[in-house]
Amino acid sequence: MDKKTYVVEMENVKKSIGKKVILKGINLRVKRGVVHVIAGPNGAGKTTTLRVMLGLLRADEGKIEVLGTDPKSPQWTKTRELIGYLPEDAGVYERLTGIENLYYYAMLYTRGNKRRAWKLVERGIKISGLSKEALSKRAGGYSKGMKRRLLLARTLMHEPLLAVLDEPTSGLDVRSAIEVRKLIRSLAERGSTFIITTHNLLEAQYIADYVSFIDKGKVVCTCSVAEALESFGADNLEEAFVKATGGMEK
Questions:
Q1: Model's pTM, two decimal places?
Q2: Residue 178, pLDDT above cutoff 60
Q3: 70, 153, 244 from 129: Cα distances, Å
Q4: Are 62 and 26 in contact (CB under 8 A)?
Q5: Fewest CB within 10 angstroms: 31, 101, 106, 135, which?
Q6: Is the pLDDT reported for residue 249 higher than 70?
Q7: Closest Cα partner for 225 from 250, 238, 208, 249?
């Protein structure tokens, strides 16, 4: 795999769904080995940006490269195996135990190789932080926080080069959200690249190395958290976002 500086490059990417224009020219570059947060209000275009980035939706215009590959190219099938994706609305298989959930996906990742699958399961158990007792129970009885930790383990246990997480703490209570953020930061410190969307700008300030403000289908700015605070003379990212988008057309 090409060791390029940027794992994701999007240039003037546009997307409409029906008559509604969702993305109005997204320009985004994500550096290798960082936690890059795409932050903005609900309806700003965050989820659509991820779906277009990962080839789940086809862009109407623009250029996209992820890990050096265009999602429209024949090589994308191999490249996407190097990516872990957790949609906001992802769910666990509630009739299966935690272990069975992990094993099911491990078998998919390894194309049915049981020995390799169990190695992935062992890694997933460590990532989840869930007890053996919890993992032996049906996932339908888990709390929201436990389910989210299981989903993160499912997404990351094959050690993807790029992890893409859409609103990973959405709907969680404060304690569960803090646990998930700590988990992401600890995994990022091992060298993986994370792209995370959130409408919670204070969360973005805690978890991000770099942040892209997105509003009304366009990226307003991309910089480190410290640069955002300094550039806009703000005490926090909420204030920086308001100042960054205050002059945009309503």
A1: 0.90
A2: yes
A3: 35, 9, 38
A4: yes
A5: 31
A6: no
A7: 208
